[in-house]
Amino acid sequence: MGKISEVIPLHEERKYRFDTLSIHAAEQEDQNQALNSPIYMTSTFTFRDLQQAEDTFSFKRRAYVYTRGGNPTVNLFEQRLSTLEGGVDGVAFSSGMAAISSVVMSLTKSGDHVLAHRNLYGSTFGFLNNLLENYGVRTDFIDMTDLNRVEESILPDTRILYLETPTNPSLEIIDIAGISRMAHERGIKVVVDNTFATPVLQRPLELGADVVLHSVTKYISGHGDVVGGVATSRDFDYVQRLKFSYMCELGGVMSPFNAWLLIRGMKTLGLRMERHCSNASKIARFLKNHRGVEKVLYPELEEHPGHELAKQQMKGFGGIVSFELKGDRSMAEEFVKHLSLIKLAVSLGDAESLVEVPAMMTHRDYPEEKLHRFGFSGRTVRISAGLEHPEDLIQDIGESLDSVYE
Ligand SMILES: Cc1ncc(COP(=O)(O)O)c(C=O)c1O
């Protein structure tokens, strides 16, 4: 499945495959020949004399100055991640939300309009729906799985089409290539949050998106010990502007220590995604046959409305499974109470499987009475399938469901 290319075109003679690049891209020989690149845990960099400082500040000399403007460990992370996404360079941020807010602000000004998919991570919805309005930028939320609806909703002052795919938490699939064609005919930029898929499963820049961003807190880290974000693009000038005029001036900078943890986590990204996907697939198929489950939202299932599209634009269906329980919303509460292995927590993409109830937790910014319009409900449960043995996960889920629906 999936047309995603195995070899990533680099600006180098030699072309390597994804799993090799996730370990080696942008590596440089260390002065002490250390295998792993050191952590440059420093806020500032020294100058030999004032002349050297002046040459640096007047761009006659290229050198690091201050970690908010650039740091070797952070740069290695940015370059490695952007290579995996097929971008020219990346900008690391202190969180996924810092990446999202900076990217949206870098592409809009007062009076502009953003068109976004109706189902997004809760704080992204909150930022676009509440905060951005204070700066004169309006957002409409529509169903972007319907390309006609997108076309009808574009306004003369629309500057961005913003989406996640698969979406959080409904796992809807949006046609990135179709959206990008429509946007580019009108000079509009397409921004894709690729957190759920990762570049292992989907590379939006290859499909035409202008900017790809991530909460690297999730699969890119993979170990639940980092909060961070990143954005990348094929447009070098844009990346420079995002780095120096937005990340640097708004100040959402990534710590070098976090960049180092991310570099370490990325080495196993391909391997981890295989296991996340196969565990999620087994969980989805188990849930589908349980009497307490009304509907399973997982794009691998043939009945999922985005199944065919996911097969085309992704290389696997991802590690997240959402499902609707039968009965009322108290069933979700009962279900999570009876789990013992799977932990009740926000976030996803960790080695540990996690469960949450979006309407009561991460997606509280959505108006409760209109939840169905956004593709989920108070009975929607989201599981991030970790790396544990699938039979242990299924046993935990099965025992919990059995005690709720006995
Ligand atoms: C799809 C998606 N995008 C963005 C974010 C925000 O990222 P962060 O928590 O790193 O700010 C999240 C967080 O859960 C997410 O799930």
From TrEMBL:
Keywords (A to Z) from UniProt: Lyase, Pyridoxal phosphate
Entry keyword annotation includes Heme: no
Positions bearing N6-(pyridoxal phosphate)lysine: K218
Transmembrane segments: none
Gene Ontology MF, one: methionine gamma-lyase activity
Domain of life: Bacteria
InterPro entries for the chain: Cys/Met-Metab_PyrdxlP-dep_enz, PyrdxlP-dep_Trfase, PyrdxlP-dep_Trfase_major, PyrdxlP-dep_Trfase_small
Keyword Lyase belongs to the record: yes
Single Gene Ontology BP annotation: methionine biosynthetic process
Any one GO cellular component localisation term in the record: cytoplasm
Cofactors, names only: pyridoxal 5'-phosphate
EC number, UniProt record: 4.4.1.11
Protein family per UniProt: Belongs to the trans-sulfuration enzymes family.
Protein name per the record: Methionine gamma-lyase
Organism of provenance: Mesotoga infera
